[in-house]
Structures are given as structure tokens and as C-alpha cells.
Amino acid sequence: MGKKILLAGIAGVAIAAVVVGYFLMGSDMTAPVANPPKDNDCEGINNQIQKSACYVALAATEGDSRYCWNAKGDEIIYTCIAAATHDTGPCKKIEDEDFQKACEDPVHMYWALKNNDASQCARITTENIAETCRQSLGAVTSASECGRNSECYRMLGARNPASCEGVENENYREDCMIGAAKAAGNWQYCLQIEDLGLTKENCLEDVLGADNPKLCEIENEDIELRDECYDQMAFDLEKPEICAKISDPDMKEDCYYYATP
């Protein structure tokens, strides 16, 4: 999760940094890295601003500041190195105060996710990045703050199951209930999922375990279907003891025969 979220945050900051940097930059820096590594995807971009943004995101994701020297402009390169090394030091070399703070955003984002420390999110000045940071760490108090972040809803449900009731979107409400069920180890929350797919089934398996015969009881009110479920589970898991739960005598006898290794 963290890496994908961090990449999204860095990409957003990278584009903003490059655009603003083109208005701020003075003379280009002399690159201390001779022949910095190239990337075919970035090199295929004709627009210099977008190309620089590509290299900033790549350097940050790979943790390799050598890519930064393919970007253009002092402020952009400083931002890139900061993101790649997870160190705000290079940002201090930027004279413009606002841009200096924006440079530090991906660094704060990295350490917030790495240390599971939501307090770092408060140091991020770019609001959409700060919001993503809070959502990613579940540092929200209501569903309205989660936006479109599924993991945020799961963490919210884990912390406060009652909050799931206020989630209007069905898919996000399911995410919230799954989080509540897993955190509490309570399969009853799974039953509040009203999907027609495998979400409810997966939730029950996550909480109870895929080899728990209780799944057959919960998922099948019809006795015949429940017996078939016990029979199949006993066979698949090679656990004849599950056959004892079958009510039909003939099916139970066959179950013991086929389920015994």
C-alpha cells in the first residue's frame, strides 16, 4: 500500500514542482553525476516539463538520485534529490519559501507512511497530498474524510464500526465493514455486506478461516446445501471429522470414505 500511495503523492508533487520550478529557476546547476542513467519512458516524452516530472517520480520511487540530473532547473533537481533520499536537506537550498515547503512534502509523506506516524502529515503543505497522507494512515474521524480511498474506509471501520453506517457508497461501506470484521474478529459484520459477488464470502473466510466448517452453516440456511458444503469441504481439506456435521446418513457415510486420506 505504502509504496503505491507514496508514488501517487510524489508524482503529484513532482508535476507541481516542475511547473513552478520553471518560473523560479535561474542558471542550471552543473550535474555532479556524469552520464546519469536514462529511462526509455521518460526519454520518450517531448515536453520538457513532463519529462522532468517523470524523472523526479522515477528517482523517488527507485531511491536513486542519479536520475535527478536528467531534470532541468535548480529547484526541480533539489526537489528530486530530496524525494529520492528522503531528506529535506536539499530543499533548504531553495530560496523561495513556498516552493521550499512544497519540496519537503514527499519527504514528510515518506516518513509518515514508513513510521505509521500521522503527525508527519500535518507538515505537508500541499493539501491534496496531506489529505492522501491522512487517509492512508486512517487519521480521519469520519467517512466523509476518506474520499475515494478504500483502505481509509477499512481502517476507519477497524477503529469505529459504527462509522460504517454513514457511508453512502455501497462499495466503500463494504470496505468499512470488512475492516470492522477483521479488526474485531467478528464475522457478524460480514453479514452486513449486501453484495452479490464474493466480497461477503471473502470477508467471512478472512475472519473465520477458509477451512472453518462454520462457513457452511453461515452461508447456507438450507440443510441440504449445508450438507453438500460440509461434504465438499471435508473432501477438499481431507478432514473426515467435518463429515460428522452432515445430517444425511448416506452422504455422511460417503463423506467419510472419500475424505479420508
Q: Could you describe the 3D structure shown?
A:
- The chain has 261 residues and is mainly α.
- It has 3 domains: 2-136, no CATH class; 148-197, no CATH class; 211-261, no CATH class.
- It is 57% helix and 0% strand.
- The chain has 12 helices and no strands.
- Helix 1 packs antiparallel against helix 6 and helix 3 (48-62) packs parallel to helix 4.
- The chain is elongated, with a radius of gyration of 26 Å.
Helix count equals: 12
Q: Classify the secondary structure makeup into a structural class.
A: mainly alpha
What summary fits the major beta sheet? none
Roughly how much helix do the residues carry, as a percent range? 55-70%
Approximately how much beta-strand content do the residues carry?
under 5%
Instruction: Provide the domain count.
Output: 3
Radius of gyration: 26 Å
Order of helices and strands: HHHHHHHHHHHH
Task: Give the rounded overall mean pLDDT.
Answer: 81
Number of strands: 0
Name the shape in a single word: elongated
